[in-house]
Amino acid sequence: MQTICVLFGGVSPEHDISLRSAEAVLRNMKTENRTILPVGITKEGQWLLFGGKDYSELGNGSWKENPANRTAFLSPVKGMGLCIVNSEGKAETVKVDVVFPVLHGENGEDGTIQGLFTLAGIPYVGCGVLASAAAMDKSATKLMAATTGVKQADWLVLRRRDFKTDADTMCKAVTEKLCYPVFIKPCSTGSSVGVSKAKNTEELLAALENAFRFDEKVLAEAFINGKEVEVAVMGNYEPVAATPGEIDAGAEFYDFETKYVTTTSTPYIPARVPAQTLSAVQDWAVKIYRALGCKGLSRVDFFVTRDTGEIVFNEINTLPGFTSISMYPKMFAADGVDFPELIERVIALALED
Question: CB neighbours (10 Å) of residue 184?
Fold first, then answer.
């Protein structure tokens, strides 16, 4: 009998996306010869073993009110596993064979919780501490990806303290290096949280103000007029890239609302680019995956410029969305790996030596 702890929720702005991903994972995970322990982390940081049977409670956010929930937490003590608090206030321990962290953003895919799993001696799905931390910080990602020789947009790192001290000087520094329009992105958020496009100084100030709400460090990046092409990668020592997909945002850019609220975006698998470009994008994705030391899974995002067809690296996501509309499972499904089989494969990779 195998015991799998599925972690979801978390304190990041991507909490609700995590709930939707976890619902899909739990619905598609095979249960034969397994004990599945769904453990949610509230926005306030409380850990609860979900006691319900209806996983739709995760998707609609009502899971934390289930009366059968119990306080639970992973012990950092090696070999102790999951501690579940009983009705008498005493902790019972359950050995965990593998953790599947369906967590996005802060404390979920930035190496923080991966460090806890490492201390606890529990195998886990996804990248290790270093790769998770590096991929979460967009500036660190760019520096490491540059070792592959991949083309990237021009970029500049900005700090909140400098913005508060002299916002006008910061805007001048941005426009001296980059031409409008520019993208402003918090360095350590995903799902396009806090991302804005600025076409003039007024919009730049507003974009910086917004981005610094989410992170102390912000990235200013040159606009690339291109198609958004994504590649799902899976593996440890021999990573495999799925058929690349393309997102037609149906909006000015693929922001949080376009991803998860409206229905204007349209996915295409394979991406609508020449066959040689599809192959080249896959090759670059694997190179970047290896350069960051990724394992298990990641989604690597690119632009393919509309005028010349040049491939430009955008970012990497070490715990991509697993919702019903997420591109990562869709890309592998296009290659014949359905959702349940995809889950089995990433779990097997977590247990691989």
Answer: 25
